[in-house]
Amino acid sequence: MTVHDRSAFIIGGTGQIGRATAARLVAAGYAVTLGHRRPLPAGELPDGATSLQVDRNDTEALLGALDGHDLVVDTVAFTPYHGTQLARLAGRVGSLVVISTGAVYQAPGLPVPIPETWPTVEREAHDYPSGKAALERCLLATPGLPVSILRTGVLHGPHGRSLDHWSFIKRALDRRPYVVLAQDGLSRFPTSAVANVAEIVHLCALKPAARVLNVADDPLTVAEVAARVFAVMGHEAEIVTFAGPSRPDGLGFHPWNVPEPIVFSTDRVRAELGYRPALSYDDALRQTIEWAVPAVERARARGGGWPDVFPDLVARHGPDVWFPYAAEDAHVAGA
After folding, report:
1. What are the phi and psi torsion angles at 149 (to 5°)?
2. Per residue in 40-92, pLDDT tens?
3. Which residue of 37, 133, 257, 289 has the lowest C-beta tally within 10 Å?
4. CB within 8 A of 124, min separation 6: which ones?
5. Which residues constitute the domain of residue 83?
6. Does residue 275 lie within any of the structural domains?
7. Residues 6+ apart with CB under 8 A from 37
8. Same domain (yes/no): 79, 104
9. Would you give the distance in Å from CA 62 to the centre of its chain?
10. What is the pTM of this model?
11. What's the structural domain count of the chain?
């Protein structure tokens, strides 16, 4: 019989971050409960965890489920209302970790790299960055609340509904001899491996405090990302680039497609928590690929395809810019 001396509750525990965090906390000896809205299908519960179906909008029931835990992790807090719920945990839990986003940083004019002290958006809007920024302000203004706010980049890892690296994974699977990238292949946009987000959650639990931390992988250029994916998959491909944005037919498109580099500073999380990645960038890629490729194969067996596995990827960028192989062939032939 396993005896646990620490307990954790993860709101949104069956999602991508929730699953990775549950695995890390179970390995660290926590009794882990996953909170979720809908009944779980058979086999969906991560090893070593228990689950509780709870309505996020029923504040009293939610707080009752969270009371007394050593650690509460909220992966699905998006609005000031969620902030007012969580603020009531002051004095009732050991540590609170809330997943936020680097999209809260005020742009344009972002420094390279962006420190946690950079201003966040303040506008009367109901969009994703505004909601997250208002949530953060509510929590940080609450006396006695040991809340760690983690600002992540674009997530990658198992069980995601989006995967930017699929832009290169599929090309390797298709044995493409080259990939064509806009912006000279120099675009940089932060990504975050969920295994490393989970590691930081665990470190925050060990050192409760009110703070904001950036969470990001190494700040690679998109050409370097492509090269790393191809190397991990044992695929050789030429990386062809051109200046300026991607073209309407999709030539040069990639999800990192920004004209100016966006890079998060991770100095604070390293200094305050002694953080070192639980997985290297290449090992995180391997973990992602080992999940993603069979997931897409299962979707195809059901008559679908990769957009069914990564619907958020299509929602963010549209259906028509992916894998324009004929345009790539023409571009390379005419170069």
Report:
1. -100, 120
2. 665 677 788 999 999 999 999 999 999 999 999 999 999 999 999 999 999 99
3. 37
4. 130
5. 6-156+191-215
6. no
7. 53, 54, 55, 56
8. yes
9. 24
10. 0.96
11. 2
